Amino acid sequence: MFTFDIDGGGDSAALYRDLGQALDALTADEPDAIANMANAAALLWEYLPDLNWAGFYRVDGARPDELVLGPFQGKAACIRIPFGKGVCGAAAATGTTQRVDDVHAFPGHIACDAASAAELVVPIMVDGRLIGVLDLDSPRAGRFDAADQAGCEALMAMLGPRIAG
Ligand code: SME
User: Fold this and answer.
1) 25 C-alpha to ligand 1 centroid (Å)
2) What is the CA angle 163-138-38, rounded to 5?
3) Which atom of ligand 1 is nearest to the CA of 121?
4) pTM of this prediction?
5) Residue nearest to atom 2 of ligand 1 (CA)
6) Hey, what domains does the chain have and what are their CATH numbers?
7) What distance in angstroms lies between residue 109's CA and the mean position of ligand 1's atoms?
8) Which atom from ligand 1 is nearest to the alpha carbon of 111?
9) Among the residues of the chain, which ranges form H helices?
């Protein structure tokens, strides 16, 4: 069992700093990409409030123009997402984080869970190559702010080399 001292006391910077330390401790010595993605999804799911989905879509070398579902927490989700489709596909196609306050206003949004209202998708780059995306969904519109984006981008910068396989 792992126990973490993660609180933040309402301070996003402190919360993401603590999450970074926990994620570092969980993944630093483990070479298995699936294990590291699984623990990252569990950590974010447990400590970030108001989520209804947290997990990864990966780039599979055999089909390099689409994302395939990776480790996650939440409801069963769509398995493959072509680059350019939906919020995850937009992040993959552009290589830029997509922070969406209201997914219903996002063209092509893929509704895996009808409860989702806001979404944050962070592309994960390693040596200039896209290896996947982190996808967080929330039932609360406007749930993700700039601090969440910066925090999750920093977490993925650390995690990327540890899930590159
Ligand atoms: N809503 C996403 C699809 C993935 S699920 O939310 C888990 C999208 O539009 O890319």
Assistant:
1) 29
2) 25
3) 10
4) 0.96
5) 110
6) 12-162 (3.30.450.40)
7) 7
8) 1
9) 12-27, 33-47, 86-94, 146-159
Distance 86 CA to ligand 1 centre (A): 7
Instruction: Show pLDDT as tens, one digit a residue, over the chain (165 residues).
Output: 777 888 767 789 999 999 999 999 999 999 999 999 999 999 999 999 999 999 999 998 888 899 999 999 999 999 999 999 999 999 999 999 999 999 999 988 888 888 899 999 999 999 999 999 999 999 999 999 999 999 999 999 999 999 997
Q: How far apart are CA 105 and CA 115, in angstroms?
A: 14
Residues with CB under 6 A from ligand 1: 53, 77-78, 81, 86-89, 109-110, 112, 116, 119, 135, 137
Find where tokens 């630093």 sit.
28
SS3 state of residue 91: helix
Nearest atom of ligand 1 to the alpha carbon of 137: 6
